[in-house]
Specification:
Elements (H helix, E strand, L loop, with lengths): L1 E5 L7 E6 L2 H11 L3 E2 L8 E8 L5 E5 L2 E5 L2 H11 L7 E11 L2 E6 L6 H10 L3 E4 L2 E5 L5 E2 L5 E3 L1 H9 L8 E4 L4 E5 L11 E9 L5 E4 L2 H10 L9 H11 L2 E6 L2 H11 L3
Parallel strand pairs: 2-4, 8-15, 15-17
Antiparallel strand pairs: 1-2, 1-3, 4-5, 5-6, 7-8, 7-9, 7-10, 10-11, 12-14, 13-14, 16-17
Helix pairs in contact: 3-4, 5-6
Length: about 270
């Protein structure tokens, strides 16, 4: 069996994936990049996922006391990893893309397939520093922001959009499974390991409109909770943190990604 370990930023437990399939082993490395390891100390705590290929396109995926038969093991692994996050209790994980420019981080929060990865890739290719296309981690005590610099995972539609902007990225590999097709891009212009916040943008793609608008605290609170990457207990401490964070939240509507690029550059010089 081959083993590969995953440790996300601000997590307290490794995820260990054991498999007899070298393709699965390779795809996990391509998806999670520098957060994967082939060897760690023996005494660290691990959550294990076992993936056994027993036919040309049939697999068993086993974790805890659950066993599932599937022809799409990579999707199962990704789902299990997402559902079993072990994030430090003082960290707020926001599902978002993020770039860094002139000492500030700029986050783009939205649901899956909303365009945040394409926008993040575009801004990175235009010279802004890459922080994440997936999740940003925020210390609820001191408001430090931590990147999650996995390779950028572009869908075919995102690749097409970037081509139309003449900003096609250099693709290192392509992952193609029944439900996951991704073009993998590894930026080399990376953000620092600790960042301060510029703004959090809740993004909406439009046909013609390009604008940034303020939002009331009550709406920002709802959007922040909706885009949290894991479940949090609603406490007075949690609400207080989100209330402070909401002062840096805006709605970003755009039809042209160059508008977003120009807006961020202008913000950085205010």
């Amino acid at each position: 069996m081959l083993s590969i370990y995953l440790l996300k930023p601000c997590s307290y437990k490794y995820i260990k994936i054991n498999t007899n399939c070298i393709e699965i082993h390779s795809m996990i490395g391509n998806l999670y990049g520098k957060y994967t390891y082939t060897d760690i100390q023996d005494d660290v705590s691990c959550f294990e996922i076992n993936v056994e290929k027993y036919n040309d396109d049939k697999y068993y995926v086993v974790y805890y006391d659950k066993k599932k038969q599937t022809n799409n093991p990579l999707q199962e692994i990704v789902n299990i990893i997402f559902e079993n996050a072990s994030i430090n209790e003082n960290i707020f994980a926001l599902h978002s893309g993020c770039v860094y420019y002139n000492n500030h981080s700029y986050l783009f929060a939205a649901s899956t397939s909303s365009g945040k990865t394409t926008l993040t890739a575009f801004l990175t290719l235009k010279g802004l520093n890459y922080a994440t296309d997936d999740c940003t981690y925020i210390d609820m005590k001191n408001f430090d922001f931590y990147p999650y610099q996995v390779p950028i995972h572009l869908r075919a539609g995102g690749m097409q959009v970037l081509k139309e902007y003449d900003t096609e990225p250099p693709i290192s590999t392509i992952i193609n499974t029944p439900t996951i097709q991704r073009f993998i891009f590894n930026p080399d212009n990376l953000s620092p390991d600790v960042m301060k916040l510029g703004y959090i943008f809740f993004i909406e793609r439009t046909d013609e409109k390009n604008e940034v608008v303020d939002i009331p605290t009550s709406k920002a609170l709802v959007l922040l909770m909706k885009n949290a990457a894991t479940t949090y207990k609603v406490s007075s401490k949690y609400i207080s943190f989100l209330s402070k964070l909401s002062s840096k939240c805006k709605i970003l509507r755009y039809s042209d990604m160059n508008f977003v690029l120009d807006y961020i550059k202008e913000l950085s010089y205010e």
